[in-house]
Amino acid sequence: MPSRDRADAGRRLAFARRVRGSRSEPEPDLSIVRGDIDDYTDRHPAPADVGLIVEIADSSLARDRGEKRDLYARAGVPAYWIVNLVARQVEAHALPVGGAYPPATILAEDQTIDLVLDGQSLGRIDVADLLAKRP
């Protein structure tokens, strides 16, 4: 995962929990936002600040695939990942059109996912690293 300050990529990134929306402030499990963490000491990130939202889902899977996905798409969040602990996969949504995401790309536990911010790849992440270890 990128650090909170990624100068070598010509970008600064911060991690945030709450994202300000038009009618709500959802609390994603993880969001990567533009700027430095200090940019958000007096405010929550707005949708335009967000590069990626990640939800870790087991019992919340239906809500993450429905209500939250639709909210993030309408807000224009460019990338939304659901880490599906039940199926042990990542459901990657990208680049909403007309307030909706195209169908998700499904990535299995043995695959990697490209972390992209503003069209630039920041690296690949093993899907297995996003999933809880099996007991």
UniProtKB/TrEMBL annotation:
InterPro entries xrefs: Nuclease_put_TT1808, Restrct_endonuc-II-like, Uma2
Signal peptide positions on this chain: none
Pfam families tied to this protein: Uma2 (PF05685)
Residue span, Putative restriction endonuclease domain: 21-118
UniProt-recorded name of the protein: Putative restriction endonuclease domain-containing protein
Record organism: Paludisphaera borealis
